[in-house]
Amino acid sequence: MAENLNENACYGKKFLKKDIKNTAGKCAVILLILSVLTYFLGSLIIRILKIRSSLLGSNSTTGMISGLSNDAYNFWVGYFPCIAADVVAIIACFFIFRKGINNYISFKKEVPSDFIVSGAFASIGVGIISSIIFLIYSIIINSHGIEIPSPDFSIPKETIYLILFFSYTCIIAPVFEEIIFRGYILNNMRKYGDFTAIIVTSIFFSMFHFNLVQLVNPILMGIILAFVAVKSESIVPSIIVHMFNNIMAMITTLISTTNSQNILLIWSSIYYICGVSALLYFLFKYGKELIDICKEKNEVLKVRNKIFYSFTNKWSLMYLVFYLFIILVTMVAKNS
């Protein structure tokens, strides 16, 4: 009897290990499609602009064709490829997992408004903690003479591109990213345990940003967003929280460009006090539920093993290699 139980346990481990690798591999395929297509489209558009520049004439210092502003260039090279790749990735999700978006949008249970509101404001506190952590490791890296490249979050000056910029950052990106990460990836990993799914999804979410500035924040923010999605059984609340987080970040960026120290000081004070207070409130009220999720059952495989197998299949490893390659290239370009 004992031998049969051991054989069944061994078979169970092998099956679960294989299934985790298969599902996580599908998630990695989607992210590879998303990432590679984004960089491919961006590079293709840059190439087209350079060809047109050589034919029509342009300012050699900007590498843009006549009449194409910096704002226009940044949109077509930076944001348009992201939108197009997101759409393709969502279509790929449908064919790979054979599930429609409505499976993740519809509410399966009632969610208190306090949970969504406090979760939204708690995201500010998460951002503050992430900034402190980034400050610490950036100081350490900079002390070795290495500069960390920062993404371009400059605000467009032209009205049309300002509208497009805010539409993408505060509406389109949160919706598309939640569909992909908290919709398809999180929910398809949940069969191995909610905590495993939350951690794996959050790590994938961090890698998706492809820069060291946004290394910690997507992980911590991803945990909050995933917890909101798991508790509500819908991605609509996580979309709201994600939108709110991005809107607050944009407001902060806009205020920082006013050159008014008084306004910046007042806003920063309100921002920090509200953010930290909201995070403490959120953890106090809903922390027990989050802890309960962390107490995942481990009869067959421990959580750390399930997370390990999620990133050791061939597709996840390919995505990891691509991620490290992009990080290395941008670091070398910045410090050369």
The unreliable regions are: 1-8
Which structural category fits the helices and strands? mainly alpha
Number of domains: 1
Round the Cα radius of gyration to an integer and report it: 22 Å
Main beta sheet strand tally, sense and closure: 2 strands, antiparallel
The tally of strands reads 2
Helical residues, percent: over 70%
| Percent strand | under 5%
Categorize the overall geometry. Answer: globular
Pfam family, one: Rce1-like
Domain CAAX prenyl protease 2/Lysostaphin resistance protein A-like: 162-248
Keywords: Hydrolase, Protease
GO molecular function: endopeptidase activity
List keywords for this structure.
two-stranded antiparallel sheet; disordered N terminus; single chain; mainly alpha; 336 residues
Give your account of this protein's structure.
By secondary structure, this protein is mostly helical. The protein has one domain (2-335). 79% of the residues lie in helices and 1% in strands. The protein is built from eleven helices and two strands. The protein has helices at residues 2-56, 70-97, 102-105, 113-142, 159-189, 194-208, 217-232, 236-256, 261-294, 303-310, 314-335, and strands at 58-59, 64-65. Strands 1-2 form a two-stranded antiparallel ribbon. Helix 5 packs antiparallel against helix 8 (236-256), helix 6 packs parallel to helix 10 (303-310) and helix 7 (217-232) packs antiparallel against helix 8. It is globular and about 65 Å long. Residues 1-8 have low confidence and may be disordered.
